[in-house]
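pinging the channel bc i need a second pair of eyes. not urgent but kinda urgent?? the chain im working w is below, pasted from the shared doc
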Amino acid sequence: MPLFDISIDIYLLIALLAFAMLAGFWGRSRQIAKKKRRIAELEREMMQAHAELLEMQKDYCELESRVKEGNSPVIPIKKKNELPIDPTRERTRKSSSNGTNGSPGR
């Protein structure tokens, strides 16, 4: 048996228990609030990044449509009404440049 007598007041024990519960709930609610703020911040950041991507895509599509319209100042090398090259003339031109048309190579 112990040499001294331990007396615990039941009201004090209930008060300490209630205080510990309130402190735990308060600490946990702060953690949850902090995590919710962080999640909201990350969501805003993601929305901003997606908005930037969509804006870039819009600019790209506008640029692509301008290029397709053909209003560029570039002058084409070939004319549109130019006749295609005769394939028989093409063969003779290639064979004469190679020196294989039957004439000596001098």
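so The CA atoms of residues 35 and 43 lie 12 Å apart. and The longest helix spans residues 10-69. — does that match what u expected or am i reading it wrong
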